[in-house]
């Protein structure tokens, strides 16, 4: 099976702009989670989508949003970008059920906000 | 927020030596996982250990879990240069398997 793919891999934006990142999960996986990784805060959970519905949410401002399509592909949007949004954004997919679920991560999108 | 700390923050060893990393967490968990990350790339899943398990092996990896101390360790035996990476523990501290809480990570450098 193909792994989790993320596009684009690199992105440069300026403050105030918005950005949309895309994630295609492993075939058959219905859950997609998003994480932000920064040197200062480490890896932090943003949100999870399952069957086109947001199932879990982390402690991020409303500027961070997402959605999931019927084919389980997910997009994450950040509006009104701030310098602190510069980070590696990772998505992970899993089948979606059970208590002992391995998450499979994509290569990430590195976002630089100038 | 981080679930806990990983110790050490950085570790440098020679090829062939064993590497041990420790992870502490704060709340009850159902499972704990270890991931590897190469140079700011995606995370690669290494191993999952359930809260009712004490030890698990996978190839050159050995993971232990002590729920009474809320700690876990990852042992990599006979390290190779290709093991150079950052290693993270992750728990389902929130009670949700798909919402992982990560540790701060250990950066491992294996030299020839």
Structural overview:
In chain A, 0% of the residues lie in helices and 53% in strands. With 114 residues, chain A is mainly β. In chain A, the strands form two sheets. In chain A, strands 2, 4, 5, 6, 9, 10 and 11 form a seven-stranded mixed sheet that branches. In chain A, strands 1-3-8-7 form a four-stranded antiparallel sheet, with no helix packed on it. In chain A, strand 4 and strand 5 form a beta hairpin. The model of chain A has no long low-confidence stretch (mean pLDDT 94). Chain B has 112 residues and is an all-beta fold. In chain B, strands 2, 4, 5, 9, 10 and 11 form a six-stranded mixed sheet that branches. In chain B, strands 1-3-8-7-6 form a five-stranded antiparallel sheet, with no helix packed on it. In chain B, a hairpin with a 4-residue loop joins strand 7 and strand 8. The model of chain B has no long low-confidence stretch (mean pLDDT 91). The chains are: A mainly beta (114), B mainly beta (112). Chains A and B meet through strand 4, strand 5, strand 9 and strand 10 of A and strand 4, strand 5 and strand 10 of B.
Write a short abstract of this structure:
Chain A has 114 residues and is mainly β. Chain A is built from no helices and 11 strands.
Kindly list the characteristics that best describe this protein.
A: 114 residues; mainly beta; seven-stranded mixed sheet; four-stranded antiparallel sheet; 0% helix; B: five-stranded antiparallel sheet; globular
What is the chains' assembly state? Answer: heterodimer
Main interface pair?
A-B, 32 and 28 residues
> What is the string of SSEs of chain A from the N terminus onward?
EEEEEEEEEEE
Average pLDDT of chain A, rounded to a whole number, is: 94
Radius of gyration of chain B: 13 Å
Helical amount of chain A: under 10%
Using the CA coordinates, give the radius of gyration of chain A: 13 Å
User: What average pLDDT do the residues of chain B reach?
Assistant: 91
Helical/strand content category of chain B? mainly beta
How many strands of chain B? 11
The number of distinct helices of chain B, counting runs of at least 4 residues, comes to 0
Per DSSP E runs of 2 or more residues, the count of β-strands of chain A stands at 11
Instruction: List the helices and strands of chain B in order.
Output: EEEEEEEEEEE
Tell me the span between the first and last alpha carbons of chain A: 37 Å
């Amino acid at each position: 099976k193909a792994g989790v793919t993320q596009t684009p891999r690199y992105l440069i934006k300026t403050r105030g702009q918005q950005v949309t990142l895309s994630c295609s999960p492993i075939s058959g996986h219905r859950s997609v989670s998003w994480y932000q990784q920064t040197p200062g805060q480490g890896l932090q959970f943003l949100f999870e989508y399952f069957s086109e519905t947001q199932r879990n949410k982390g402690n991020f401002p409303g500027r961070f949003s997402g959605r999931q399509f019927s084919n389980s592909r997910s997009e994450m949007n950040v509006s009104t970008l701030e310098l602190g949004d510069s980070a590696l954004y990772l998505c992970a997919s899993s089948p979606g059920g059970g208590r002992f679920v391995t998450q499979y991560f994509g290569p990430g999108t590195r976002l630089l906000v100038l | 927020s981080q679930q806990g700390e990983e110790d050490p923050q950085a570790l440098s060893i020679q090829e062939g030596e064993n590497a041990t990393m420790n992870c502490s967490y704060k709340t009850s968990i159902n499972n704990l996982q270890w991931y590897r990350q190469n140079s700011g790339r995606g995370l690669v899943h290494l191993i999952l250990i359930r809260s009712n398990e004490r030890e698990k092996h996978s190839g050159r990896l050995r993971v232990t879990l002590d729920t009474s101390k809320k700690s876990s360790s990852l042992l990599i035996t006979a390290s190779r240069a290709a093991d150079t990476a950052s290693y993270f523990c992750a728990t389902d501290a929130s009670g949700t398997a798909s919402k992982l809480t990560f540790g701060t990570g250990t950066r491992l450098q294996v030299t020839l």
